[in-house]
Write a structure and sequence with these properties.
The complex is a heterodimer of chains A (193) and B (80). By secondary structure, chain A is an all-alpha fold. Chain A contains six helices and no strands. Chain A has one domain (18-191): Four Helix Bundle (Hemerythrin (Met), subunit A). Chain A has helices at 18-44, 46-55, 58-83, 87-117, 126-157, 165-191. In chain A, helix 3 runs antiparallel to helix 4, helix 4 runs antiparallel to helix 5 (126-157) and helix 5 (126-157) packs antiparallel against helix 6 (165-191). Chain A is elongated. Chain B starts with a helix and ends with a helix. In chain B, helix 2 (32-51) runs antiparallel to helix 3 (59-79). Chain B has one domain (3-79). Classes of the chains: A mainly alpha (193), B mainly alpha (80). The interface between A and B is large, with 47 and 42 residues. Chain B: Keywords: Cell membrane, Membrane, Transmembrane, Transmembrane helix.
């Protein structure tokens, strides 16, 4: 079978679609502004932010970064294979990408459990208000991404599937967006102060 | 598997470990903080351009994303 070709050089057709990229920009700007506010308050309350940052588990943060990067790597391969009409292999990589997402959520749950057990909540201090809100909203995006991945994977493997390359790319772009947000959250929350 | 994707993935892991080790050894001083952000920018661009295939897109998207990221990074470093 022939590989499918899309003219990505057209301004209206970035890989993943123009609507997905508008969403990606809006999400990045929203998280970016929240992170700027976090850094601003961090410089105002340097001691509190440093002490709170030291309480975070950097190993958990690092392992979660690896989970998301690995998941993104499998997703990129899944998109590539789908374009080559290797649907079965692509589906396998989709599932591996999902596994990365589930592992991320599992470890995040353990981290949240430890924090709640230690009595650390939204009200503990300014650092933790940002920590809970930023990581919480990111987790919601990961859960949404997983729902999209499961649904798309189901659609692409069923008989007489009408799933297109554009669908797979849009799904991949959303999943990678979760990576991008985390790649900014992790260094600023876990390492910066 | 795409060879280029494997190389990018390995590079992403190396950068991640480098940053974590750097902060572990030297702490997050005023010198290390910009480096943390620099490595974050490298990882961000690798994922966007290689995994998301932004490298194939129209220059508008490449420039917009890079400029947004650079502006954000400059603001974060200057605020610190």
């Amino acid at each position: 079978m022939e590989s499918l070709k899309i003219n990505y050089k057209n301004i209206y057709y970035p890989p993943g679609g123009i609507l997905m990229w508008i969403i990606i920009f809006l999400e990045l700007i929203t998280f970016g502004m929240a992170l700027l506010a976090f850094v601003y308050y961090g410089t105002e309350n340097a001691t509190v932010f440093h002490e709170s940052r030291m309480e975070l588990n950097t190993v958990f943060g690092t392992v979660n970064t690896i989970f998301l990067l690995t998941s993104g790597f499998f997703m990129a391969n899944a998109v590539h294979l789908f374009k080559e009409n290797e649907v079965k292999k692509s589906s396998l990589y989709f599932k591996l990408a999902m596994l990365g997402g589930f592992l991320f959520l599992a470890l995040k749950s353990v981290e949240y459990y430890h924090k709640i057990e230690s009595g650390i909540t939204l009200d503990t201090n300014m650092f933790y208000t940002f920590y809970w809100l930023l990581t919480g909203f990111h987790v919601i995006h990961v859960i949404m991404g997983l729902v999209i991945l499961v649904w798309t994977n189901y659609g692409m493997t069923k008989k007489n599937s009408d799933t297109t390359v554009e669908d797979i790319e849009a799904c991949g772009a959303f999943w990678h967006m979760c990576d991008l947000i985390w790649l900014l959250l992790f260094p600023i929350l876990y390492l910066f102060f | 598997m795409e060879k280029s994707l494997i190389l990018v993935y390995i590079l992403l892991l190396i950068v991640t470990f480098t940053v974590v080790c750097m902060v572990g050894w030297y702490g997050s001083s005023d010198v290390v903080a910009p480096l943390i952000m620099l490595f974050a920018v490298v990882k961000f661009l690798l994922v966007a351009f290689q995994f998301m295939e932004l490298k194939k897109a129209h220059s508008f998207w490449k420039i917009s994303l890079t400029l947004t990221l650079v502006l954000f990074t400059v603001l974060v470093i200057s605020l610190k």
